[in-house]
Write a structure and sequence with these properties.
heterodimer; A: TATA-Binding Protein; three-stranded antiparallel beta sheet; B: alpha/beta; Quinone Oxidoreductase, Chain A, domain 1; Rossmann fold; six-stranded parallel beta sheet; 13 strands
């Protein structure tokens, strides 16, 4: 498929999605995170780690609430985001989920997965994504 | 590079990114039927230049600073889906559902609801991580995902413990087999053959294998001891299965074919036409047939890979009281049992290798594999 055709399809998709629910700037997501409340907050409050958690997400304000243990799933943790730009509501929720999953991975495993330095036959291969 | 266009190129080597990472020198890596869905363009989110391959074994050449159980020089096999070993799912031995290894969960979540574990070399919806058809590969959470290979398990045997064996093993495990049970397996590729052998090891008395390729049916007969049905030779596969099981149907059916199934008759022709027109991604003839063939109250175990299928006869499941189970394989869960079976001599998957070649020859290997040329079961590459 040519780049022009591909971009044309992508543009139409963006238009269609935007019609569903335009203009949301706020989103909230919850996930269980295994760890103490202190551990969860430590990752969130560390400036460098928070920067990694929110990488590529246009955030104006963010708020984290750490709840109670949900059996052996972990603590129900809720991230509320206010974005700098309006997006389709679906997209804002996905972005909030992406950030919260990074915090979950950081808390539970000590690292956030990414594709930095990923080999490929593209010009940007082997470079950091951040 | 693109749909049905593979190339071998020199790319940067992977490096340690996170403290639990391991870098392996790939010793063997193989084609998988699910790669064909990528190559044929049925799985979205592939990018030009992506490195494919997810069934492999190798040698540790570098470890991250938090890796404790591995050292340089260790010979290991890695299940294709990568777990973290810490989340709720890994804790329950469901590593292919891991919550923490997918680097791009936002690619998967809108389609799947929740992201699965990462698998390398299998599109950006499934991680974007570079695959194993390379000299080196980065493995996330090395301590959890890399399994030491004891003396007595060869590289050729170990290779298939990465994916074909655990996928077949998963399919058989889902069948909750009891001594004397009969299992029918659709597909005599590597996964189907390993599902058959696994089912026997779990107690199945009879295995019925369904395919159309004579060389694969011969493997099922000669290597596994299965009864075989060539569906292109039969007026009705279902009638044949019914007769072979005394009229009651198999206790369990395992579907090991996936979205590019072949078949016969008008439904198959319709599937092909709709797939060609991108009205759906899947040709589901094997799955439909397995659902209808299984006995009342039986188990339908699906390890073939599907995208979006329509015309699935769901009422068959309801009205016959069928339990359907499906999953990507959590190889970490089964690795000790699989290795023990290999060491005892009860399981030797190395016969799956029909062609061995260099990585540079891999496009030719995929041509053989995809088009079933030269009796190809699996092309294996030694980088």
């Amino acid at each position: 498929m040519s780049p022009e055709a591909s971009e044309g399809i992508a543009g139409k998709a963006r238009q269609a999605i935007a019609k569903i629910k335009p203009g949301a700037t706020e989103a909230q997501r919850s996930l269980p995170i295994r760890g103490s409340a202190d551990d969860i907050r430590a990752g969130w409050e560390h400036p460098e780690l928070r920067s990694a958690i929110l990488q590529d997400i246009p955030v104006a304000n963010a708020h984290l609430a750490v709840g109670d243990e949900d059996r052996d799933w972990g603590r129900t943790t809720t991230l509320s985001l206010e974005l700098t730009q309006a997006m389709p509501e679906l997209a804002t929720h996905v972005l909030a989920g992406k950030a919260l999953r990074r915090l979950k991975s950081l808390t539970e495993t000590g690292e956030i997965q990414n594709t930095d330095f990923n080999p490929s036959a593209r010009a940007d291969a082997g470079e950091p994504t951040r | 590079m693109g749909i049905n266009k593979l190339e071998v190129q020199t790319v940067p080597d992977p490096r340690i990114v996170n403290p639990h990472d391991v870098i392996l020198k790939v010793r063997l890596t193989t084609t998988c039927g699910s790669d064909l869905h990528l190559i044929d363009g049925y799985i979205p989110t592939m990018r030009e230049g992506d490195v494919i391959g997810h069934e492999y074994m190798g040698e540790v050449v570098e470890v991250g600073r938090e890796v404790r159980k591995l050292k340089v020089g260790d010979r290991v096999v890695v299940p294709s889906f990568l777990g973290c070993g810490k989340c709720w799912y890994c804790d329950k031995d469901l590593a292919s559902l891991c919550d923490n290894t997918h680097p791009k969960p936002d690619f998967a979540e809108p389609v799947l609801g929740y992201p699965p574990a990462a698998i390398p070399g299998y599109s950006h919806a499934f991680s974007g991580l570079a695959g194993s058809h390379a000299e080196y590969i980065r493995v996330l959470h090395g301590d959890y995902n890399c399994f030491h290979l004891p003396e007595g398990i060869t590289d050729e045997q170990a290779l298939f413990l990465s994916d074909s064996v655990p996928t077949g093993w998963t399919g058989a495990d889902f069948c909750e087999l009891k001594q004397g049970d009969t299992v029918a397996v659709w597909g005599c590729g590597a996964v189907g053959l390993m599902a058959m052998r696994s089912a026997q090891l779990m107690g199945a008395e009879r295995v019925i294998a369904i395919d159309r390729l004579p060389e694969r049916l011969a493997l099922a007969r000669d290597r596994i001891g299965a009864e075989t049905i060539d569906y292109e030779d039969e007026d009705s596969t279902l009638e044949q299965i019914r007769e072979l099981t005394g009229g009651r149907g198999p206790d369990a059916c395992i579907e090991a074919v996936g979205m590019e199934a072949h078949g016969t008759g008008p439904q198959y022709a319709l599937d092909r036409a709709k797939q060609a027109l991108h009205l759906h991604t899947d040709r589901g003839s094997a799955l439909r047939e397995a659902a209808i063939a299984v006995r009342k109250g039986g188990i339908l175990s699906v390890v073939g890979i599907y995208g979006v299928i329509d015309k699935f006869p769901f009422g068959v499941l309801t009205n016959k009281g069928i339990t359907m189970r499906t999953s990507q394989q959590p190889g970490q869960r089964y690795m000790p049992d699989m290795m023990a079976a290999v060491q005892r001599g009860d399981l030797d998957p190395s016969f799956l290798i029909s062609h061995r070649m260099s990585l540079e020859e891999s496009p030719h290997g995929y041509d053989l594999f995809k088009n079933k040329k030269d009796n190809c079961i699996r092309a294996v590459f030694a980088p």
